[in-house]
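sorry for the late reply, my laptop died twice this morning and i had to redo everyting from scratch. anyway the thing you sent over, i finally got around to it. pasting the sequence first so we're on the same page, its 288 residues, then the predicted structure underneath. double check i copied it right bc i was rushing
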Amino acid sequence: MSAVYSRMNSDLRLRRLSAGTRAQYLRHCKRFLNKQGDRDIAAVGEPEVRAYLHELVEVHRVSPYDQKMAVAALKFLFERTLARPEVTATIPWPKIPETLPTVLSRAELVELLRHVPNRDQRIALLCMYGSGLRISEACRIRAEDIDSARGVLLVRRGKGNKDRQTVLPDRLLANLRQWWRQRPVKNSPWLLPSRRSKSGHITPHYVANGLRAAVRAAGIHRPGITPHTLRHSFATHMLEAGVDTRVVQAMLGHRNIRTTTRYAQVRTDLIARVPDPLQLLADAVTRR
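ok and here's the structure:
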């Protein structure tokens, strides 16, 4: 089974999938193969795949997102690495619930950022909200990615291994310039360097820990606050400010505009303009 694992790791690297995706796929591959014991992989088929997925859903009660990742990992294993696509051909994709994103108000964001324990964590979170970055993208910013003359930030190898440009607000640029002069590691190409990580820059786990500490310290009692909440808040606030949806789509790097338009569902400025239905009833009674 170790040979299969190594082959899948090679396939994932040659496919140039992101490090995060590779880690998730390999985790499920390892767990699945371990459950097969010493069996010949050629004898493992659809019943074993279904048994593994049923255990995830019914015993471990994983989320639909984790289930989707497991299905994707096993489909890659059998379709690409083992060249046996018939094994997973009829395995269904889970239905993902269409939940509304959590969006923080501007006042909540100010309070949150005030309570971030470490300055490099705060800079990362500022970039995530100020430019609509994913957490991994904020951790990997280099000095040459900052185009201050044009007011844009280059995002290298974002989701789907695609580059894009997004807004670089003046206030964020001022914070980045101040941080660059005072950062503790001067000889690193990374905006947010780290001596502890192998990559040389701070990690998403480190930034997420800072966010959790800030949420507790700020006393914000809202469910579902994650690092991605800052990106959600950026998108929603941009739409509320009147920025064209397609511009927001380009800044976020969304392939499909439907992904961007879901933020329109949480635009409080539009909801607040809806007429009071009870007042409409009262007006109708008065006119009678």
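The longest helix spans residues 64-81.
thats about all i looked at so far, will dig more tmrw
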